[in-house]
Amino acid sequence: MEVSKKYRFGTLATEIVMVVIALLFLIPFYFLFVNSVKTFGDLLTNAASWPKSFEWHNYAKAWDMTNFPTAFKNSLIVTVFSNLLLALFSAMAAYRMVRHNSRFNRFLFAVFVAAMVIPFQSIMIPLVKVMSSLGLMNSIPGLIVSYLGFGVPLSVFLFHGFVKSIPLEIEEAARVDGTNTYGTFFRIVLPLLKPMFVTVIILNTLWIWNDYLLPSLVLQSADLRTIPIATFAFFGQFTKQWDLALPALVLGILPVIIFFLAMQKYIVEGITQGAVKG
Amino acid sequence: MNRKKTSGLLQQLVFVGPSTLFFTVIIVIPFLLGLYYSFTSWNGVSGEVTWVGIDNFKQILTKDPDFGKAFWFTVRFTVIGIILTNLLGFFLAYFLTKPLKTRNVLRTVFFMPNVIGGLLLGFIWQFIFVKGFAAVGSATGWHFFNLPWLGDATTAFWGIVIVFVWQTAGYLMVIYISSINNIPKDIIEAAEIDGASRLQILKTVIMPLVMPAVTVCLFLAISWSFKMFDLNLSLTKGGPFRSTESVALNIYNEAFQNNRYGLGTAKAIIFFVVVAVITSLQVKLTKSKEVES
């Protein structure tokens, strides 16, 4: 009895300390939101206080000036198409590499794994040159192609580990029934890969949606800007104009926060899976 | 027999072809080109590419104090960043695997900063350091908040560290939580019955068993901090006076601001070699620790 009482007190104390730390963690969001709806004068007087009045038209201005709908649409197109193609191509490659373990495929896999070490900044300069000679610059499809290239190593690696754990018997049964390799892959194997699809798509989504450097090198036109680039351009133009910059930042983080809260369970699973394999 | 061979080749092409093609165009070719350009005086604009031998490397190592400074900054930042973020990540995970009522909400809160990209986070924190800290400082009078945040080399350095830890600790927490949850309950119960204190259990049971997670988390943290770019760009732009310029930002500026592409690629190659060496050393080191425990 004595012990359990002491334990309960300890748990309560831990709980309180953790909640306090969590509130500290959230303070940046408080500052961001509260000041995004203030008048410029109110914001300069005291950034910590609750707003005297809620100036929602700050948001309307930021929405128009960053051309938010276009940026959102561009980010969405890039993220969705890069993800779908990347997951599909990587799964196919990993499947073939595991099931047809030739010397060439072993070499190719080793190259993929080794390439994961290369930092993006190490190849970005010649990449721009290669992309412009292929006519891929300043275009959304061009950007998607480069995400396919950069995403392949990790995605193939993750699928590779997963395909190995699928028992061969299932496929052999299908083959006896006369299904060819393509049918086996698309009808039997692909559904079995679903958990790893979730992991790969989650990891790639967080990366591609938030990426700044690659799109900033590839895209030049204002109407092709993704959210991070639009925010950067806007911020450069209105430095210290916090009543415009802060609502733009809230708009910028809102989609990914909503995505996170909705998909939290899968995100946590994806990270754990990705980490175990990595 | 021949038909079987052709269909095998076709399958190889269909399944592995697309990935290999994109990988080759986007990574392999630029990487090889980069090796070549690092020995030239290419300026990125004109078609003229002159071979200059190892001049670029000589210049970087002997006549470019800013690159050395950027490296030193990156190393200091990496060491401090990975220690702090791993400590905090493990601390959070350790307490959030206890039966707390608010456990799930707290996990969500601690992870949330991570889903936001470094660029936007840097801008948000720029406001907090400049305006938010000042407001708290004048309300409380605490010296800490009245420092010239981001205004001098020291506060700018710690400013980036604070944001980095705030952003990444939650990610590592998730990995540590899954690792702690994987420890068989009966091992911990057995230790409790033997009269081990909670600290002893942490040190002799939990710590050795989460070593694989430590490997992963160190690996991730090193990779994030050493290649830091977005946060650096949006929070301080490398300033004041290039005191917080990371290697990645230095390479970027060399190529895209100064238009010295040859020099930039040479720096990029040096950067690649260092990253590759650190990564392989680190994996080797922590892997050997795992076996010991």
From TrEMBL, chain A:
Transmembrane region(s): 12-33, 75-95, 107-128, 140-163, 184-209, 244-263
SUPFAM superfamilies per the UniProt record, alphabetical: MetI-like
Domain ABC transmembrane type-1 residue range list: 72-263
InterPro entries in alphabetical order: MetI-like, MetI-like_sf
Pfam families: BPD_transp_1 (PF00528)
Top-level taxon of the source organism: Bacteria
Major site of localization recorded for this protein: membrane
Subcellular localization, as worded in the UniProt entry: Cell membrane
Keywords (A to Z) from UniProt: Cell membrane, Membrane, Transmembrane, Transmembrane helix, Transport
Membrane topology per record: Multi-pass membrane protein
Family the entry assigns: Belongs to the binding-protein-dependent transport system permease family.
Protein name as annotated: Sugar ABC transporter permease
Organism listed in the record: Paenibacillus cookii
Automatic annotation (TrEMBL), chain B:
Residue ranges occupied by any ABC transmembrane type-1 domain in the UniProt entry: 71-282
One Pfam family from the record: BPD_transp_1
Keyword presence, Lipoprotein: no
Membrane topology classification: Multi-pass membrane protein
Subcellular compartments: Cell membrane
InterPro entries: ABC_transporter_permease, MetI-like, MetI-like_sf
Keywords: Cell membrane, Membrane, Transmembrane, Transmembrane helix, Transport
PROSITE patterns found in the cross-reference section: ABC_TM1 (PS50928)
UniProt similarity note: Belongs to the binding-protein-dependent transport system permease family.
PANTHER family assigned: ABC TRANSPORTER PERMEASE PROTEIN, DIACETYLCHITOBIOSE UPTAKE SYSTEM PERMEASE PROTEIN NGCF
Protein's name in the database: ABC transporter permease
Naturally occurring in which organism (per UniProt): Paenibacillus cookii
